[in-house]
Amino acid sequence: DQQVKQNSPSLSVQEGRISILNCDYTNSMFDYFLWYKKYPAEGPTFLISISSIKDKNEDGRFTVFLNKSAKHLSLHIVPSQPGDSAVYFCAASRLSGSRLTFGEGTQLTVNP
Amino acid sequence: GAGVSQSPRYKVAKRGQDVALRCDPISGHVSLFWYQQALGQGPEFLTYFQNEAQLDKSGLPSDRFFAERPEGSVSTLKIQRTQQEDSAVYLCASSLGRRQPGELFFGEGSRLTVL
Q1: Would you give the distance in Å from CA B3 to the centre of its chain?
Q2: Which among A3, A12, B24, B83 is least buried, having the fewest CB atoms inside 10 angstroms?
């Protein structure tokens, strides 16, 4: 039972354009969502998070949007840079809980 | 270093062997997690410690998997009688938080290959 799903295994964009990574979840008890970025041979690193009381959180070039009714969140990166090329994982949890449930990841490639 | 440190980085085991994977969390981090990441998949939760107490071990796939954190800092994940399906990257993560997910700091992982 995949409670967090990233339907696009890969995404390719041109440098300077917007990257949009999508994530869907099924568990309505999730109320805290995070995005992690992972380079090869490294552990995932935290990028940005959002709690369910918000619908948008912005940090520099990164913005996360949450649509609770659709159980959908997205990560926007603008402008995209070649250094953003990595695997991006969406993760969800309960604020009262501890464990994160991860999606399968999306490989983003930003072409110069 | 100041990050989460895991050893060994790579481990090859013959089927049936026991393995032990070590995690050194960030100093002062109360919470410690183990995740298993199969090829092409996202990390999957195995177990969670708050200090030395193992509060959640519901993700451990079988009784061959055992984790401990006896003094509330270093943790060891032990896999007994390894099977081929145990081949994966084992990620350790730590955080300051006590009862909230918060931001996890991950180590580089230990890649286990069972032949």
Answers
A1: 15
A2: A12
